[in-house]
Amino acid sequence: MELKGKTILITGGSAGIGLEAAKQFITEGAKVIITGRDQKKLDLAKKMHPSITTIKSDASSQEAAIALYNQINEMGGIDILYNNAGIMNGQDNLGFSNSKHFEKAAIEINTNYLGVILLNDLFLNMLKQKRSSYYQYIIDIELHAVQSCTDLFSIKSCSTFLYRSITRSFTDNWKQHKNI
Questions:
Q1: Which uninterrupted H or E stretch holds 93?
Q2: Nearest-10 Cα torsion for 101, 67, 71, 82
Q3: Confidence (pTM)
Q4: Which of 20, 68, 71, 101 lies most in the core, judged by the most C-beta atoms within 10 Å?
């Protein structure tokens, strides 16, 4: 895939795999936009890689996703959507009684699963319109890919399993309808 001149949006791009992907895409000549919830991390990423465009956005929020889409649209759109945002709340989700358990579980599901569905849905037509070849590009990163839900970090593993399943279903559906 030729990346030179392409515009790539990386969710969760302020650190880790997302930031490393941004660095690699810049090396290939792409224009990179990253999102994240932490402005300090976004500022640090911008300082390390001045060509990156940063946008503070929370992948668990429908309102933020719509605002992100509108902002990207005003910037001219993207060629590639790289879904990387994810969250894991750890020990609070091991099944022990905790007044914040439901709230934290909802954030994980909204970020790791529902946020991906929403962003794919929002950006799909833009990607179809912008494509320079027969393919539109959505890259879904399956962090800690799992075959099924596990006891340790149960909400994270289950939301990742759902994410993996919807990505495969999404791809199969595109193929059946000759959209890719």
A1: none
A2: 40
A3: 0.79
A4: 68
